[in-house]
Specification:
single chain; 354 residues; alpha+beta; five-stranded parallel beta sheet; 23% helix; binds S-adenosylmethionine
């Protein structure tokens, strides 16, 4: 993840642009560690804000090998250092080698279980999973927010949005499915069909090209991290009708997200943005639907948390009939939807003027 430059740079730039939010503040980094080296001390984001905050707490789950990189006092097993008000502190090699050994307060534990001596002015976290919600730790961040964020505190990032768009999934189709049609003059389409069936069971993580998108992207979900609740994340259903702007075979829905920081900057994982480790996610349809420009198509996407209490989601995608009820407002080209949208836009403009 540290190697994911667009991700890490987005946090770095946003933190630098918001130094006033961190200056002399109590800051909590939930999930501060880096999984890759199992130094659950201070990851790439944490070390960057540590210099500005007066009390940066770096929290991550205890791992068996965490102690290896956590510096202990000569011959002892306890934490190093004791802050007069804030109590004992662990020093870690990451924090130390970046000059913040005495500043960062490392807490090993789940955010759900740890205790802190004070409330936080800012909560920083990089919690996003594939298509935002998959195996995401947002539920834990919500618990952390409710336990530790001061009433006028700030979430960092503060908004997250999930988008979806019908796609040809052309590159993916070529790599994973088409290759089975006539390799070496043999008809192996049965293997391709089986592969496509298995893809219905799980969303596919892949890089897509903007030219594979068949219509304008639609906003599926907008989360305001200050307020969102775990209950709201249990099941998300989105119905959309869109007008096709590019002809091609419709093979599935492409999903991606963006996160917005308090300074307005964004971490964008769209097909047009530099690739991140999240890439995009495809929900693959059972068969191809050839589409012409100006066709109106409808889809319904449901993301439902698995009943086992884990962090996984079940995704279902279905096609809607053009005559099914359209949401209001709807961005498609059907006359009725255009009219309603024009009326709503007019009312909004009048409100803004008034
Ligand atoms: C994406 S990684 C963090 C990356 C790191 N902040 C960086 O900048 O490189 C997410 C981290 O959250 C931690 N985590 C997941 N659930 C947690 C919880 N309930 N409490 C504390 N940490 C948690 C994981 O152990 C993992 O290290």
């Amino acid at each position: 993840m540290v190697g994911d430059k667009p991700r890490t740079e987005a946090y770095r730039a946003a933190i630098q642009a918001s130094r006033h939010l961190f200056q002399d503040k109590v800051v909590l980094d939930i999930g501060a560690g880096t999984d890759s080296c199992e130094d659950h001390s201070v990851g790439s984001c944490g070390v960057r804000w540590a210099s500005a905050a007066s009390a940066p707490y770096a929290i991550d789950r205890p791992q068996t090998r965490a102690g290896r990189l956590t510096r202990q006092p000569e011959g002892g097993t306890g934490p190093v250092g004791r802050h007069p008000q804030r109590g004992p502190n662990r020093r870690t090699l990451n924090a130390e080698r970046n000059g913040f050994g005495d500043v960062v307060r490392v807490v090993h534990g789940r955010i759900e279980d740890v205790t802190l001596p004070e409330q936080a002015d800012v909560i920083v976290s990089e919690w996003m999973g594939f298509y935002l919600l998959h195996e995401s730790m947002l539920d834990s961040v919500i618990v952390g927010r409710d336990r530790f964020l001061a009433p006028d505190g700030v979430m960092f990032p503060d908004v997250a949005r999930l988008y979806a768009c019908p796609s040809t999934l052309a590159a993916f189709h070529c790599d994973q499915l088409q290759c089975w049609s006539r390799p070496y003059g043999l008809d192996l389409t049965a293997v391709g069909e089986a592969a496509r069936r298995s893809m219905q069971q799980a969303p596919q993580v892949l890089d897509t090209h903007p030219e594979e998108l068949l219509a304008a992207p639609e906003l599926v979900l907008e989360l305001h991290l200050q307020y969102v609740t775990a209950e709201e994340l249990a099941a998300v259903t989105c119905r959309r009708f869109v007008t096709v702007t590019r002809p091609g075979p419709y093979r599935g829905l492409c999903l991606w997200f963006e996160c917005q920081f308090p300074d307005g900057s964004r971490l964008d994982t769209a097909p047009r943005a530099p690739s991140t480790h999240w890439r995009q996610t495809a929900v693959v349809l059972p068969t191809d639907y050839p589409l012409e420009v100006d066709t109106v198509i409808g889809w319904e996407l449901t993301l439902a948390r698995e009943a086992d209490g884990g962090r996984k989601y079940r995704i279902a995608l279905s096609m809607l009939d053009e005559d099914d009820e359209h949401p209001v407002p709807c961005g498609c080209a059907v006359g009725k939807c255009r009219l309603i949208k024009a009326l709503i836009d007019k009312e909004d403009a009048e409100c803004d003027e008034g």
